[in-house]
Amino acid sequence: MRFCPFAQRARLVLNAKGIKHEVVNIDLKDKPEWFLEKNPLGLVPTTETLAGELIYESPIICDYLDEFYPEKKLLPSSPFGKAQQKMTLEHFSKILPLFYKIAMLRKSNEDVSGHEAELKNKLSKLNEALVNKNTKFFGGDSITMIDYMMWPWFERLESFQLKQCLDGTPDLKKWAELMLEDEAVKATMHSADTHRAFQKSYAEGKPNYDYGL
């Protein structure tokens, strides 16, 4: 689905590694029967290989792509390096619900200041991780898998009205600016206005999955 951050993870890795692929977008409100026959869970992203193998869950898809197409590896070669990235991803996965909770509360005109403070606190810990590493990106001085795994939500900060949560996290802010220069990011991203338009249609119960086409 074009606006799904989890699906964007897979597209980021496909583009970063230069893997030839075909994207088939799914209407999540009206999933086609052929798709449900392939994946009864109806999850996106779902990847089908030329051999007909089906893989779902974005981190699993991305790990598979990195292993099956070993050129331009995105994961570290050392077991400890891989474990570090998985630990960072596990920590980040606990931040994600806050993005959606704040959006839902705003829709109901409820106070979100407490949740914003919590998000700022969690983002400050990511900032500390960059400070401690003293590198441009989370895996070193070049983009690796963990950067792509986290990026889709940072792309949406402005449309979620959460960009101010990066105030006070200068290293994380610089990381986000550097990510915008990446070719895979450029190839897969939408503007804040486009995200806002889709999010508005979604909030109204009529998601326009084809917006901008």
Automatic annotation (TrEMBL):
Residues 1-73 form the GST N-terminal domain. The keyword Oxidoreductase applies. InterPro entries: Glutathione-S-Trfase_C-like (IPR010987), Glutathione-S-Trfase_C_sf (IPR036282), Glutathione_S-Trfase (IPR040079), Glutathione_S-Trfase_N (IPR004045), GST_C (IPR004046), GST_omega (IPR005442), GST_Omega/HSP26 (IPR050983), Omega/Tau-like (IPR045073). One of its GO terms (cellular component) is cytoplasm. One of its GO terms (molecular function) is methylarsonate reductase activity. Its EC number is 1.20.4.2, 1.8.5.1, 2.5.1.18. Exhibits glutathione-dependent thiol transferase activity. Has high dehydroascorbate reductase activity and may contribute to the recycling of ascorbic acid. Participates in the biotransformation of inorganic arsenic and reduces monomethylarsonic acid (MMA). This is Glutathione S-transferase omega. It comes from Liparis tanakae. The gene is GSTO1.
